[in-house]
Amino acid sequence: MNKDPFKEYIRESEPAKRDKGYAWHTAIGLQAVDGLKTSEYLAYTAVRNIEGEISFEEANALLKTYYEENPTLDASDRTEEADKVSARIAALLSERAFSFTPNEYLSIHRKMFSGIYSHAGCIRDYNITKKEWVLNGATVLYGSATELRATLDYDFSEEKKFSYKNLSMDEIIHHLAVFVSGLWQIHVFGEGNTRTTAVFFIRYLRTLGFDITNDTFAENAWYFRNSLVRANYNDLKNGIHETTEYLEVFIRNLLLNENHPLHNRTLHISGTFKEIEKPGIEIVKPDIETLKPDIKNGFQPKTASHILKLREAFPGQMIFGRSDVMKVIDMKSSRASELLKEMVEHEIIEPVAGHGKGKYRFRQYEG
């Protein structure tokens, strides 16, 4: 089965298949925010659901049985999580009932991660930091554990009072960006925060009259997360300030079917790259001498460009191999092997066990 069998369903004239195709495509795409990949079995099960052969309940039951019969032996392999959470997200995105309340937000997390995380549906009781590639290893300042419920309630009450009446579309999009970035920054949950926020946001947008059936989330989930990071980070002494401009571009594609390029490299605080690439504006190529610290000066410009393209294609902890490199960069197998070897030698990527021979992932930048 093709890696992505859902795009054609999104274009279906039959509404039921189109909506289910969107739900599954988005659900699977959202796993990229945590560097997770789903299985071929999930794709097969999803198509059966879209075609009306099985219900969402039956799809979840099949996945449960499948992993009982095929237990994962490698603790680092989170495919089971990706599969089960994808099926639950697809079901949630197919529901029409919705309440704009903090409890609905918590309920979505519980439904997505029950049996996967012990804290499913619970507000975290500890403080967190997360090193971000887009911030050169720095972290966003997340909500304090002692104030999470009060902060969550406040954000919801303020949004409920807000009126979109007489606003231009630009003003609406800006406000939505401010709201969702603020909700995400609270970081109510210890894990699964971005996926939960994305599902809640999509369902909320529907109540505002937006019919979302495109592939913006499915294809750009990592950009969505990085734009949330940039909307909540300040380093004023170095001229870095929080901005929703990147998130607004994402939302324009999502709601208005615009086609702005969404490249993660444009969000990096190093300033190496053009801040936002817009249609009709010439794209500025990066200065190879000032690339990320882990791309060594010893690389030729063309090789460094290949590495950047791979980093964007396989963000976070996503796992890839030689065939993936060949597909992304359109190169022969021998050259792909050489490139992987060079990247390992320069400690840009690291081998990953438990996924077959010749699998790698990018090392996490530590600042």
UniProtKB/TrEMBL annotation:
Record keywords, A-Z: ATP-binding, Nucleotide-binding, Nucleotidyltransferase, Transferase
SUPFAM superfamilies: Fic-like
Record GO biological process: regulation of cell division
GO terms, molecular function: AMPylase activity; ATP binding
InterPro entries: Fido, Fido-like_dom_sf, VbhA-like
Catalysed reactions, as listed in the record: L-threonyl-[protein] + ATP = 3-O-(5'-adenylyl)-L-threonyl-[protein] + diphosphate; L-tyrosyl-[protein] + ATP = O-(5'-adenylyl)-L-tyrosyl-[protein] + diphosphate
EC code(s) of this entry: 2.7.7.108
Domain named Fido: residues: 100-249
Entry annotated with the keyword Transferase: yes
Pfam families named in the record: Fic
Protein name: protein adenylyltransferase
Organism whose genome encodes this protein: Parablautia intestinalis
